[in-house]
Amino acid sequence: MTPGPLLFARYAYPPNSLGYCGPDDSRALLEYAAAGVADAGLVALERRFAGAWPYLSLIAAANRCPDPLDARVVEAYWLGGPMLERVPAGLLARHVADRFGATVGPRTGDLVRLAGSGGRAHHNFHVFSVYPWVGLLRAGHVAQPLRVLDYCRVRWGTVSSVHDGQAVVRVRKLCWTGRELALGGVQTQTATLATAGGRLAPRVRPGDRVALHWDWVCDVLAPWQASALHHYTLGQLRVANHALRRPVADRVLG
User: Fold this and answer.
1) What residues form DSSP beta bridges with 217?
2) Whole-angstrom Cα distance, residue 157 to residue 189?
3) Are 153 and 124 in contact (CB under 8 A)?
4) In this predicted structure, what is the pLDDT of residue 147?
5) CA–CA separation, 117 vs 221, rounded Å?
6) Could you please report the per-residue DSSP string of 107-120?
7) CB-based contact 97:122 (threshold 8 Å)
8) What pLDDT does 212 receive?
9) Three-state DSSP class for 251?
10) What is d(CA 216, CA 26) in angstroms, rounded to the nearest whole number?
11) Domains of the chain
12) Is 133 strand, coil or helix?
């Protein structure tokens, strides 16, 4: 298994490079991932991810794991896994209330209900239920919220071809029915494998099942990892679609 700090770097780099989360040192994160080095400097860098680190700490504590960057914890947060099932609903509800209550104010109860009605300490829960994009869709703003939801979630796809540092990947994109979010039919999109600064995923070949985050291929997935990501994505979509009745926040929360 890939060491936890390196696994975290692979998934955290794409939004960090866009300035959406984490410290202002995305180049160092990519260099660590490309070199395969997991040292104290990388750990210190990753502790500064204010969005993801509290979830990692929550998962680790609920599983009596001393290291939030244990590979099993990191995998559970980005992809899914049994560790998420050991985080009690009440504990997750208190976690999100404590973290975001001051920002969302009277709508804290909505967020608590989402956490308690099938929410998991998974990245896609944060995307679908904590961020305001689903609420914006219901308010009639479709194009940009839908794009952000689709690219900000960790998603899976199958590689069709590889060339010039890029991969053409078959993916199921999110669609908006006017009432709820759903996974649409298979489409192709081009994602980055490598730049002059380095690469995130190991060698990628046509036919590989891969994980994508924003415009990057982050990793090659084993069958059980792809299955977990599919399962938890559908679960967190159900939470957002059936429990959320109005925007939980007025802005993106870190």
Assistant:
1) 212
2) 9
3) yes
4) 94
5) 28
6) GHHHHHHHHHTT--
7) no
8) 98
9) coil
10) 14
11) 147-222 (2.30.30.140)
12) helix
Q: How far apart are CA 211 and CA 192, in angstroms?
A: 12
Do the Cβ atoms of 226 and 212 come closer than 8 Å?
A: no
- For residue 154, give the nearest of 236, 49, 251 by alpha carbon: 236
pTM for the model: 0.92
Q: Secondary structure of 207-240 in the HEC alphabet?
A: CCEEEEECCEEEEECCHHHHHHHHHHHHHHHHHH
CB 159 within 8 A of CB 210: yes
Q: Locate 155 and state its tokens.
A: 């998603």
User: Mean pLDDT of residues grouped by 10 in the chain (254 residues)?
Assistant: 94 95 91 94 96 97 98 98 97 93 76 90 93 73 89 97 97 89 94 94 95 97 97 94 52 38
Of 240, 235, 212, nearest to 11 (Cα)? 212
